[in-house]
Amino acid sequence: MIAFLGTGLLGAGFVRALLRRGETVHVWNRSPAKAEALTADGARAFADPAEAVRGAERVHLVLSDDAAVDEVLERVRPALAPEVTIVDHTTTSPTGTRARVARWDERGLRFVHAPVFMGPQNTLDATGVMLVSGERARVAAVTPHLERMTGKLVDLGERPDQAACMKLLGNLFLMFLTSGVAEVFNLARALDVEPRQAAELFAFFNPGASVGARAERMLAGDFERASWELAMARKDARLMLDEASHAEQTLAVLPAIAALMDAYLARGHGSDDWTVIARDAVTPSR
Q1: Whole-number Å distance between alpha carbons of 208 and 219
Q2: Model's pTM, two decimal places?
Q3: Cα–Cα distance between 8 and 228 in angstroms, integer?
Q4: Angstrom distances, CA of residue 31 to CA of 10, 28, 50, 86, 105
Q5: Mean pLDDT score, 248-264
Q6: What Å distances lie between residue 110 and 23, 46, 98, 266, CA to CA?
Q7: Which regions of 62-117 does DSSP assign to beta strands (E)?
Q8: pLDDT tens track for 114-153
Q9: Of 6, 49, 211, 218, which residue has the fewest beta carbons closer than 10 angstroms?
Q10: Sheet holding 129-132: strands in order across?
């Protein structure tokens, strides 16, 4: 039997997929109606999370944050079987994850952090990406089960908080990506271009394809051979900001980028490739 604590958008999809594979699943959610809704698919819902986990081989969690994970785990602790494996899919802090692994190690129970880059449909279809890291034997034991829950399971090694770190880094990039598209739409408004017309840019211009190569160039410190000089990039940023100002349109992100460019220009990097703005991030001792 598998217990699933947290049956929101992601948890519900995971549960339905497990049930389709013939698993016996106990469910609990802080909002009882979300757990009860899964009984139509064959799950057994509980009002008390401790009763949901009693006798479970694995306990999966998809909750909101570190505090929620710790609070729910303390509630179920008396009912956990000695041989249980706890698998937490919640996006949590690396600091909290390290402490959590150490705490449950001291208690003699196996805790594995396995956050995901998956949406509700991914959890139902077993697609998308799941991350995992931690002590090798416990990760190996749970790997076959996790592989059936996702499209790609990425094992990041023994460091217990590595999956938490990479999940935050991935989400950070998604935030920048979404903010960047929003900024394109804001500038489009200033230029009297409809956002849907602006979005047509991405039909023939795909900057995402260059992310890997750009990151490698930054890591190599290859800034002197410029393909786009920092001074010219800053000039283009000025054009964008001026156009937005003329149209009384606010750009939320670009001013911070321009300020970073200005800091590097003041240090004499105007003729370097504009990726030099990553120099302090990749070589902090300089």
Answers
A1: 18
A2: 0.93
A3: 46
A4: 15, 8, 15, 21, 30
A5: 97
A6: 21, 23, 13, 52
A7: 85-88, 110-113, 116-117
A8: 999 999 999 999 999 999 999 999 999 999 999 999 999 9
A9: 211
A10: 116-117, 129-132, 152-155
